[in-house]
Amino acid sequence: MTKLKNVISSFILGVAVMPVFAQTLQPGSNKAILQTPQGSIVALPGFLTEKLKYIDYQKIVMPGPQFIISDDPEYVRLPEAIALKEAVAPGAVRLYVYNVNGVKEPVKMDRKIVAMLKNTGKKPMHVRMLKYSSQKPSGNYFQIGKQGLADYFASNGSEEIRTVAPGKYISIDEQLDKNIVKYDELVHGFYEFVIDQPGEVSIIQADPKMPSVVAAEKITHIVPFGHANAGRGIFGVSNYKVVNHQPIDTKDGVVQLMVADGVKDPWVEGKESHSGKISKLAGNYGVMYEVELNWKSTDGKGLAMVTWNSRSADNQWCGGMAASMVVSEGKFPAGIIQLPKDQLITKKAPEAILIQIFKPSGDGKEQTLKFTYSPPGASCLPTPLIFIPVDLK
Q1: Could you give the CA distance from residue 364 to residue 295 in angstroms, rounded to a whole number?
Q2: What is the pLDDT of residue 359?
């Protein structure tokens, strides 16, 4: 994800000296929130800040697939090259492809970027897709990142079982074989599949006319690991459960949940096999956070959940943010919501995106709000999740 390292560094340097203080809505903002459709932008002047009180939470590593990400290099500069090659064990695998055709020499040229799976075992391999998200190559990185997450959340996979002979390759996503990737276009794929033999996953840039299986057998150059962008390699952590230590109480004012910031929530670590070095997944892109927050309303108020682009002032690459989430029922039905849903991105304060408004229980008892969050590709992190007490009357 472009220039991510510089953006994160500036955040880490600044977070240690940030005071935390109470924040209240400006006159008219409560009404504005209530009148805003789910997923739309609401202006909250004088409100959005990184200095809000944090929710104290526990993060639990949950069972999940082997996780591979290909984002180092992000821009593949050689006409024919391997951007990632990792061995995988039998079982579930999550693969996040985030690579760009960066060929400028000798000239800009059309390429294809494909995801290949080799059976390195001694018996036939059986492959079944559990989740599938594949976007058409584009220069609109925000749209690809937002839609890619939404499609992943919505995917039910496939009952088809593909068979791979020992020593042979198949395309993980046959649509990538057909796509023409022009210079500076992003290839974004998000897959979860299960295999019953040891294998090897490769991300390869090649001539569009070259059959992908031929490219996998012919191309041997692996782009050196650069410790850049989000990273590359295989990671043992793919799923987190997040729970709060103390219930949110609307009488206590505004609070925020901060994940995927590299400080309160450190980066997942893994290994890049070509170099043999430890790899950090800067941004935790592709990691799934299943969040369950207990809350109550002792003053009868509801709880509005919003997010915003907190990095807009830090770096020229952070002028926009777009995301997708799955959220439980409140004022609006439960389900997948693109953020924002009615335009491409949110830019900067005072813009916030309304995710959900949770209603208080009639008797003041605790409730649990739930959502699934994964750091949005193409957007700078973190994307704070803010909970605002609102008068629903």
Answers
A1: 10
A2: 97
Strand pairing class (169-171; 81-88): unpaired
> If you write DSSP's letter for every residue of 184-250 in order, what string do you get?
TPEEEEEEEEEESS-EEEEEEEE-TTS-HHHHHHH--PBPPP-S-SSEEEEES--EEEEEESS-EEG
- Provide CB contacts within 8 A for 162, sequence distance 6+: 126, 127, 128, 170
d(C-alpha 68, C-alpha 287), whole Å: 10
Output the six-digit token pair for 30: 């409560």
Specify the pTM.
Answer: 0.93
Look at residues 349, 351, 292, 355 and name the one whose alpha carbon lies nearest to residue 323. Answer: 355
Beta pairing class for 367-373 and 323-327? antiparallel
With b for 16 or more beta-carbon neighbours within 10 A and e for fewer, the 357-393 pattern comes to bbebeeeeeebebebbbbbbbbbbbbbbbbbbbbebe
| CB hemisphere CA count around 5 (13 angstroms) | 11
Tokens representing residue 374 in the block: 């994964």
Q: Which residues of the chain have pLDDT under 50?
A: 3-18
**Sequence-separated (6 or more) residues with CB below 8 Å from residue 333:** none
Run of H or E residues at 177? helix 174-178
Q: Are 248 and 259 in contact (CB under 8 A)?
A: no
Question: pLDDT tens digits, residue range 113-131?
Answer: 999 999 999 999 999 999 9
DSSP code per residue over 244-278: ESS-EEGGG--EEE--SSSSSSPPEEEEETTTTEE
Task: Quote the tokens at residue 149.
Answer: 């997450």
Can you name the residues that pair with 342 across neighbouring β-strands?
none
The token pair at 77 is 């500069």
Can you give the pLDDT at residue 6?
39
Residue 5 is predicted with a pLDDT of: 40
Contacts of 344 (CB under 8 A, 6+ apart): 140, 142, 143, 320, 322
Residue 5 has what DSSP assignment?
H
Distance, in Å, from the CA atom of 30 to the CA atom of 33, rounded to the nearest integer, reads 5
**Which residues touch 165 (CB under 8 Å, ≥6 apart)?**
119, 124, 125
Which one-letter amino acid corresponds to residue 347?
Answer: K
Contact of 96 with 223, CB cutoff 8 Å: no
Token pair 């004088």 is at which residue?
46
Quick one: pLDDT at residue 98?
97
Residue 80 burial (CB count, 10 A) = 17
